[in-house]
Each structure stands twice: as C-alpha cells, then as structure tokens.
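Revision sheet: structure tokens.
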Amino acid sequence: MKFRCDGLELSEAIGVVSKAISSKTTSQILEGIKMSCVDDKLVLSATDLEISIEKTIRAEVETEGETVVPGRLFGEYIKKLTNEQIECELNEKNQLKIAYTDSEGVLQCMEINEFPKLKEIDKDNFFEISKEDFKSLINSVFYAVAQDDSRPILKGVLLEIAENSIRAVAVDGCRLSIANKKLVSSTKDFNLIIPGRNIYDIIKMMDNEGNVKVYVHSNNIMVDLGDTIVINRLIDGQFINYKQIVPKEFSTVVTINKEQLEDAIDRASVLSRVDKNNLVKFDIREKNLMLTSNSELGNTKENITVGLKGNDLNISFNSKYFTDCLKVVDNQYVKMSFNSSILPCVISPCEGDDFLFLILPVRAR
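Predicted:
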C-alpha cells in the first residue's frame, strides 16, 4: 500500500472516524483505524461495535492495499502535519512509513484480518428529512437524555416515524423533551431508540444543505452523508410510556416572552448557584411572574409581566432545567402550564406542537 494525500484532509478525516474508536475495550483492534486505498480514494473506518464510521477522502494511490493503524496515536501524529503533503507506505513488516518534506516517521500497524467487518445495510426501508430539520429535532431534545447508567434505555433518543412526520423524545427522570418535524418521505412507520451521544455526533457531521436519508435495517440505522457513512446499532428495549406523563388539563397557564424569561432566570440563578442548589422560586399572580433566589451572600427578585389564565401559584425549580430547554426555543413567546406546586410544568409553543418540554419542580422549604 502506498498513497499520497493532503495532511489537513487526512487529519480532519481521522477526527471524524475517531468518534467511533472505542475508549473502553479490552480489544486492541477496536482502538485502530482501518485504512483502505483503492483507485483515487483513501477510505478510513473505525468501530466500537455500536457505532461504525467510514470516511472517504481524495488520495493519489500508487499501490492499493489496506492496514489498521493505532487510531489515537496516528491521529495525534497527523495533526502535527496539517500543512504538509504526506506519503504513506506499508512495508513488509506491517509498518506504515509516513514521509513529509525531508522527514519521516514509522508506526507499527495491527493485523487487518482482526478488524471487524462493517455491517451490510440494505436500503429498502428509510425515512428522509431535511438536514436542517433533523439537526433542529435532535438539538431540541438532546439536553434531556439521561447520563447515568441506572436506566440504559433513557440514554437513548426515541424516534417515532408515522404519517410523514417524526417525533423525537428524551427523558432523564427530572425532565421530558418532545420535538416534532415533517418528513420529506418515509417507506414505513418506525419506532427507534438511538444512543443519544451517537445521534448527536451524527448531526454535528451534517451541513444544512439538502436532505438526508436514514436507512433502517434489522437493529441498525445507516446515515449516508456522501463521503461519510455512519452505521449505528439501536438500543433494544421498551421506551417509557411518556404520553402518560404529560397532563391533559391545567389550572394555571402563563404566556410569557421567552427571551425575558431566559434572561431573568439567568440573572436569578447567579446567586442560587452560590449555594449549589440552582433553586429559583416562581411566584405567579395578577399577570406578574416574580422570580426569586436566595443564598448566604444575598438575594434577587425579577419581575416579568405575563398573560395569566387560571389560579395564582408558587412553585420552585432547578434553574438549569429551565435554561437548558429555553436555549433550544426560537419562539418569541411560550406557554407555561401548571396544576400545582408539586406537579410538573409543561412548556410549549403558543401555537402548534413543534415542541413540548416537561420539568419536575423542586419541593422548596
């Protein structure tokens, strides 16, 4: 194997496939990046058996072939050569010689026959969505994906595809996030649970131009981004019945300017963070929302004029839960709906159903 390529292109490609390099494994081969030279292309691939990423870049191929390099070491080395034209050649000792200007380095490679084969995914079943909408959909719910391992199913994002629409759902035990978008097309209805961190990494690889097809086969999805292909194993199991969590009726409904609310919570939380509880109290009455926070170093009060239907209410929240969801809202006004000081708040648009966020309150003393 022998090829020449641009150092920056190679470094960026390594950065993409490195997202699939296993960091917790006893199998050394899963720490590697497979490189294959064919025609005028260099194909890099990596897998941790849950997610596999394949990236293709241009290369001047003198001799076709393939090998597996130590992923992170190779990445760190090539990162120092982004301004260089690089020549790589595999010798008879399974070593990769990396030549640039008047210098060179040598890396010991791994056995190519030990590297797992990427899964074959047929393209019979898929859904198609604009890249911009898919990124918005996942960004709207990702903050609510559970981070701990106590309930592995909640570390995933539920995607429900039906009637040319897609719904994303994430729950972490203290908050629920739902987002809806229209599809360009779909071959059938699907219910998929995708590891949250993986689907978030996938959307970061996308630009905002055009559409993307997500192929569904067996217990895997494949996302084809042209020169990048991602195959991801789905999470087995039954997602929680999130529809039972969302109240159907409310005794207090507040309409509020989203930016004013976000700014007021941000200021009020400065003091609450001193006591490390992030507690902000909401006092809703007579078309006014007063936010208060207290600590040993002082207190703050923020007043916002609101639209109010229903009962007055005192309720407390972890301010971070509010700011996390408000950051992903573009609407000028939102609705906050309540039933009591111990039941969840539901945040939704004033019109439509693009999103729904549910946040559990904190029982303040």
